[in-house]
Design a protein that fits this description.
With 240 residues, this protein is mainly alpha-helical. Helices cover 37% and strands 9% of the residues.
Amino acid sequence: NLKDVNVRQAIAMGINRNAIVKADLTGLPWPARTMDNHFLVNTQAGYKSNSGTVGTYNPDKAKQMLDAAGWKQGSNGFRTKGGKTLDLRFVIPTGVPASKQEGELTQAMLKDIGVKVDINSVPSDDFFDKYVIPGNYDITPFSWLGTPYPISSANSIYVKPVKDNIQQNFARIGSDAIDKFMDDAEATTDNAKARDLLNQADKLIWQEVHSLILYQRPQITATNAKIAFLDLTPQQPSVA
């Protein structure tokens, strides 16, 4: 059901990322804002929003796109095409409250545009090996860790799959144009040019709807205010 890029774009527009971000980060001392770049996090040099219309919540436009793609809304509220219902499996690992919440919010949002979402809870130990890696899902939530090296660390995630060699591209979506921008970014020694090339690749990734990124995940450690910390930072020796 997600092979058609127009359907993927409609699904993306039917999901309110801002609402999910606010729900996930409620009560945490962290800005609840969406992340709109697949390579660079909000605090990295060169970061810019490339999400465009695809990353903007627009259920009315989503409905129009699904109509144009031939998925007509039936009397039961869900869309069908050729006798088949537009339903999606949202696979989540058990015991992860944030994933459950994201699934339920997505389910409610997509119901509004006529898309049926079934939430499938699977054992955490099987989540990647039996579901994410083999592609046994339609939508699934997990996190990638950002690094200081956005080109080399993310290349395998977005490179175009070749037969069974998907590397880490679990969405199994890509293009020659995206690969070219990433290769050129990795080859140049000009940081500004590399970031520009990454942003051009990112625009295409958004249009393909490879993945719907949500936010920069915070790492927060709670400590007792009465604890004293010893500074072990190396100091430059002085010369008399």
